[in-house]
Structures are given as C-alpha cells and as structure tokens.
Specification:
765 residues; mainly alpha; 27 helices; EXOC3/Sec6; SNARE binding; EXOC3/Sec6_C; Exocyst complex component 3-like 1
C-alpha cells in the first residue's frame, strides 16, 4: 500500500496515457477484488506463499514476452533503415541518368525540326506518283461505263457484270492509294465524280436482272439463258458481300452500296412475280357464275407454273435455293389472301360450294398439291391451311344459311302447289301400292336428299349441318302444313255444297299418307348424321317427328269430323222409339257411310290405316252410347227391354261384320261395350243389377254415376232401393284407370235433366 501511495504522488509529474491509466485502474480493482476474496478466510492465509510464488512466475513470464516483442521490433526497424539507405543510393543514380537523357533530348530536337521539311516533300511525291499512275484509268472510266451500259441494254448480263466489277476494283484501288496521300475534299470529290456512273450501272444492271427474274416463269420454256446469267451474277455479288464482311469482321467501314444482298432481293422479286401472275389470272374471271371457272383457271395456272419451276428453273439455280419451296410459299400466301377476299363476298350456295370443294379437295388432290413428290415439300414449308378453321367454319355456316334460304323458298312453293292440288276436281294420284299421294313428299324428300348428297362431297361436318338445317325446315313445313289442314277443314265446313268438297276426305287421306312418307324420309336423314350436331338456329334441337305426329293427328281428327258430319243426320233417329217400334233403317245407313269411309281408309299408308279404322270404331261406339244417354227410349215393360236389348245386339253384330278383317283392335274393344249394355238392359231381375254393375265397372272403370243412372232410367223398372244399392256398389268398386286403358265414358256427357215445373200447393183464396 505504501508503494501505491508513492506512485500516486509521482504520477502528476509524468505523462500518463489515458488508456494506460484506465488499464491500471482496472487491474488494481481486479487485484483488490481477488485479494479480498482470497484473504477473507483464515485458512486461505496458509497458502499465501504459494500465491506469491505463482504471481512472481507469472510476472517473470510477462517480462520475458515483452522483451522478446521489443527485440523483434528493434530488429525490424534496423532492417528498414538499411533498405532506406540502399534506396537513397539507387535514387541518386536514376536522377543522374535522367538528367543525361534530358540533355540528349534537347540536342535531338534541333535535328527533328530539320526532318519535317523532308517528310512534307515525301508526301507530296507519293501523292503525285499515285495521281500520275491512275490518270489513264480515270480517263478511261467514262468509256468503260458507256460500253457497260450498252452491254446491259443488250442483256449481255455476264459481260456487263464483269466490266462493272472491274470498274469497282479500279475505284477501290484508286481511293485506297490516294487515302494515304492526304487528299483534300475537293480532290476526293473529283475522283468520285469520275466514278459517278458506276452507281447508275449498278442500278441499271439490277433492274435488268430483276426484270429477267420476274419474267422467268413466262420465258423459261423459250430461253432460260438470261435467268441462268442472272442467278450467276447474284451468286457473284453474294460472294463479294460475304468476303467483305469476313475481311472487315472487326467492324471496319464497308464500301458504299455494300452489302447488296441480291440473293434476298432475288426471292423478293420471285414472290412479286408470282403475285403478279396470280393477279393477272384472278382478274381474268369475274364473280358470279364464273367463280368456278376462275378457280379452275387458278388451278391450271398454278399447276403450269409449278411444273415450270420444278422441271426448268430448279435446274438453273443452286440446290440450296429451294426454288420449288419458295414458289409454293409465295403461291400459298397469295391464295390465302385471295380466298379470304372471296369468302367475304356475298356468295350464293353454289359459289360457296365451289370454294369449299376447291379448298378442301382440289387443292390437296394429286392433280394439284397432293402429288407425292410435293407432299414432303409442302410439309417442310409448314404452310398451314388455305383458310383458317374459324373461317372455314364460317364459310360452311354461310353455305348452310344460303341453302336454307333456298330450301325454305322451295318448300313454300311446294306447299302452295299442294294447297292448289287440294282444290282439284279429281281424286289424288295413287302409287304402285294403291295408296293416295301428292307430289309434296317427293319434292321435299328429293330436295333434302340432293342437298345432303352435295354437302357430303365437302365433308361429314357440312353434311350434318345440312341435315340439321333440313330437319328444322321440315319441322317448319309440317307446322305450316298442319295450319293449312286446319284452314282446309274450316273452308270445307263453310261451304259443304261445293262440288270440290266431295274430294275433301280423299285429300285428307292423301295428306296422311304424305306425312308417313315424310316421316320415313326424316328418319333416313337422322340416321345419316354421324354425330349429334349443336343447335345452329335456335336453343332447342329440331323435332320434326313431333310436328309430324301433330299433323297426322290433326288430319285424322279432321277425317273423324267428316265421318261424324256424315253420320250426324243418321244418328238423330238412332235408339229412338220409332227406331225401336218401326224398325228405322238407321243402322244400315250408318253401316253404308262407315263402309264407304273404310274403303277410303285402305288408301292410307300403314300404320295410319289401322289408326283411322280404330278411331272410326271408337267414335261410332261413343256416338252410339251418347245417343243412348239421351234417353230417347225409356222401356215401359219387360218386352220393350228385351226388344231394345235385341236391337242393340243386332247393331253390334252388323258393326262387327263391318269391322271384321280390318286389323287388330285396341286392347279394350269399344264394340264389346254394346253387348254389355244389351245384357244390362235385358236383365230380368233388378236385384241382380248390383252384380252386373260391378262387372261393368271392372271392364270400364271410367263409367260414372250419371251414366249408370241413365241406364237405370232406360230400364224403367228400378226401384229407389235398388238404385241406391247399385250406386253404393258403384261407389265402393270404383277402381283406378289401368295403364294403357283408353276411356270411353269420359268423352260422353250425360244431358242435364230438365227441372220439373212445380206450383205450390196452396188453397185458393
């Protein structure tokens, strides 16, 4: 501690670095902390000697390392001092040598000034020598230019090109020789003036060469020599351009007008020539009927030019030119542009067909581009289609729309002819099978089949679109046909005494046969479709079969209306008391009318022949039962009931004989109802009516309470209790209508009974 105080008193007189003072403070603090920790316990004082020895060893080690560091530092300082001394000596030697060089340079400056005059004289001499040596060339330039121009005009192209190359060599040599002579601008312009005709020669020669190339397709068969000369000149120029580019690959300037790129220009001129010949052929034909001839002329012109290129011009050019491919590419591009223009015209269907047939079939046929030797060349050029798929689809749609317009007009005219035929005073024609028919289905079927056959010549896609269009138009025609049938029926009902109305039923039956023929034609068209086609004209697909069914049902309904119209006067006396008492001949008259109609129904094609017979049978039974429901006859005794039942049974036998052999009837034979009604009326015991009614309900579940009440009234012997029991049985045994059952009683309305006129029973005043 005493040593520490002593150092503190001497510290202000010495220079102390702040870092050293800070380090000393930290060291003292650390030592005090360590000492206080070590000597805080008595047992640690016993090892004080060990601590002192260890610290003295550490201190001596630190002193040794410090001495080693200082020693190495001093050795480095000494080595640096020796290097500085050596550098000082060398620097002095260099300074003396530099002073000597400066003195010698000052001496040589006087000699250089005397050499400038000699250098100027030498340059002037070189310039004069170059000028004198090139004067003969300069004076002969104009004569050579004139002679070369005459060679160009006479189309001696190889000789003219040789002279031109000689002139260009002279120009390059003279300018190179004079470039080292430091010519003035005036002298340089004078030299260029002498060679000014060379540029005109290049242009004139180029024009002649391109004129030969552009006319090569037309003149190759007569004299291919000019074309060969032009190709040789193009190759020479291409070689010169290539040599100059290799010589100045470092980026040096090229002579004026170089590179000329005449080979590239050669193909441009060839494409322009192809386009020019294409336009000349295109304008030879006008639009309209001449479009097919125009396309044929294009085919012959392209084929002839292609043969010229392959067999003549291809032999006159190097193989790497690929002249056939270049011609194919140029002609293909011209065709693409021209066909795009043609497609934008307002074309008729025949013209569109000509374009589609030419693009899809003729262009790629063996007679044109489909020749085996050209197929590989066409693939290598990757030319693409003449018309894009989108444009081709638009053109096909335009074709279908044009055909649809024409088909619609034809169908309208055919329908007008059909309506005119309906007014004839003679029966419809019969075919080889004896069925009625008119010309309408033949016209429609032939028209649609012809259009489908023509569309198939283009492709299945167009055929499917044409078929779909035909189905739409068929549906529209059948809808109009059905409307015409309705109007035909209205006109007939207005004037039934007209003589032409005698054949009304005949033409109705002919219309039904026509619909059957159209149905077969429609099914044939649908079978020809390779795949379902998207709806082109509306959101719903065409459904001509439904329109056919509606038209047939309407015609059958009109035929049944006509039958009912003729039967109506006869049916008025049916099932009346005179009919029962006096034997009214209503039933034979009904049979005669039916027989005449059934004979006409034979003229209808199946299955509508059977359908008409069945409808006539149903209608007759319905009208017979309707006449019964009017209660024209109410039995007063068992004898009348028996007589009425027998007359109904006789009518049933006559009608069955009439319909015998007319084909199988429906599942529920309507004529079977008449014997059932006869048995119901013939039944002697009224108490058995409940059982009889239950049997009737099983066979005819659509019979209602009103119908049964009328039948009970006709019997005339049913008490109130029996009536109630019968109605209870009817109510309890009313089954649902089975599947496939055709109701009979549903169409028969029971007439409302008139209310009795009653007066109140009041006493008179």
């Amino acid at each position: 501690m005493g040593n520490g105080n002593k150092h503190e008193k001497q510290a202000p007189t010495q220079r102390v670095w702040p870092e050293v003072a800070r380090a000393e403070l930290l060291a003292r603090g650390a030592a005090l902390k360590w000492a206080s920790g070590v000597f805080s316990r008595p047992e640690h004082l016993e090892r004080l000697g060990q601590y002192r020895k260890r610290e003295s060893q550490r201190t001596s080690s630190i002193h040794t390392r410090l001495k080693s560091v200082v020693q190495s530092y001093l050795e480095g300082v000494g080595w640096g001092l020796r290097l500085l001394q050596e550098s000082r000596v060398e620097l002095g030697d260099a300074s003396r040598a530099l002073q000597k060089a400066v003195s010698e340079s000052d001496h040589n400056a006087e000699v250089v000034c005397s050499m400038e005059t000699l250098r100027e004289l030498s340059c002037s001499h070189c310039q004069l020598l170059a000028t004198v040596s090139n004067l003969p060339r300069l004076y002969s330039v104009r004569s050579m230019v004139a002679e070369t121009e005459r060679l160009v005009e006479s189309r001696r192209l190889l000789e003219a090109h040789a002279r031109l190359m000689e002139l260009e060599c002279w120009q390059d040599d003279i300018l190179w020789q004079l470039s080292g002579a430091a010519l003035s601008r005036e002298d340089h312009a004078l030299v260029l003036h002498y060679f000014s005709g060379v540029g005109r020669l290049v242009e004139a020669l180029g024009q002649e060469i391109w004129a030969v190339v552009s006319s090569s397709l037309a003149l190759a068969r007569q004299n291919p020599t000019p074309f060969v000369s032009a190709v040789r000149i193009v190759e020479r120029e291409e070689a010169v351009d290539r040599a100059l580019l290799e010589e100045r690959g470092g980026g040096g300037p090229l002579p004026p007008g170089r590179p000329r790129c005449w080979r590239e220009r050669f193909f441009q001129v060839l494409e322009e020539a192809v386009s020019s010949r294409f336009r000349s052929v295109s304008y030879m034909h006008t639009r309209g009927p001449g479009l097919a001839g125009h396309l044929s002329a294009l085919q012959h012109a392209i084929t002839a030019d292609l043969a010229t290129v392959r067999h003549l011009l291809e032999q006159c050019v190097p193989e790497h030119y690929g002249l056939t491919g270049a011609y194919l590419r140029a002609s293909h591009q011209c065709l693409q542009t021209h066909l795009a223009l043609v497609s934008s015209w307002e074309l008729e269907s025949g013209e569109i067909f000509a374009v589609l047939n030419w693009v899809i079939h003729i262009y790629n046929s063996p007679d044109m581009m489909g020749e085996p030797e050209l197929v590989a060349e066409m693939k290598s050029q990757e030319l693409g289609p003449l018309i894009s798929p989108e444009s081709l689809e638009k053109l096909q749609k335009k074709y279908v729309q044009s055909v649809r317009k024409r088909v619609s007009e034809w169908m309208h005219k055919a329908l007008e002819v059909e309506l005119t035929d309906w007014q004839r005073d003679q029966e419809p024609d019969t075919d080889h099978e004896g069925f009625y028919h008119t010309c309408l289905p033949t016209i429609i079927t032939q028209m649609l089949e012809d259009n489908v056959r023509v569309a198939l010549m283009i492709g299945e896609s167009l055929r499917d679109q044409t078929i779909q269009m035909g189905l739409y138009e068929m549906e529209n025609l059948l809808n109009k046909f059905r409307e015409a049938l309705v109007e035909f029926g209205k006109e007939h009902r207005k004037d039934q005494n007209n003589s032409q109305n005698k054949l009304y039923l005949h033409y109705l039956l002919a219309s039904i046969s026509n619909c059957i023929v159209l149905k077969a034609s429609t099914e044939g068209l649908q079978r020809q479709q390779s795949s379902p086609t998207a709806c082109l004209y509306s959101r719903t697909p065409p459904n001509p079969m439904a329109a056919l069914d509606r038209a047939v049902r309407r015609a059958c309904r009109l035929a049944m209306d006509q039958l009912l119209l003729e039967l109506q006067p006869v049916l008025q006396g049916l099932l009346s008391r005179p009919w029962l008492a006096q034997g009214n001949p209503s039933t034979p008259m009904v049979c005669r009318v039916l027989e005449r109609h059934l004979e006409l129904y034979v003229r209808v094609r199946p299955p509508c022949q059977q359908r008409l017979q069945e409808e006539a049978q149903w209608m007759l039974v319905v009208e017979y039962v309707r006449a019964l429901m009017h209660k024209r006859t109410v039995c007063r005794s068992a004898g009348e009931r028996l007589q009425l039942a027998q007359r109904i049974a006789q009518d049933d036998l006559q009608l069955r004989e009439l319909f015998t052999g007319e084909g199988s009837g429906p599942e529920v034979n309507p004529l079977a109802l008449l014997p059932v009604l006869a048995d119901f009326i013939r039944l002697k015991d009224p108490c058995m009516l409940s059982l009889e009614v239950s049997g009737v309900v099983i066979k005819y579940p659509d019979i209602s309470e009103e119908h049964v009440c009328v039948l009970l009234d006709i019997r005339g012997d049913v008490s109130r209790d029996v009536r109630g029991a019968v109605l209870d049985v009817l109510e309890q045994s009313a089954p649902p209508l089975p599947a496939g059952y055709r109701p009979i009683f549903t169409d028969i309305l029971v007439p409302t009974s008139p209310m009795p006129f009653c007066l109140p029973t009041a006493k008179c005043a």
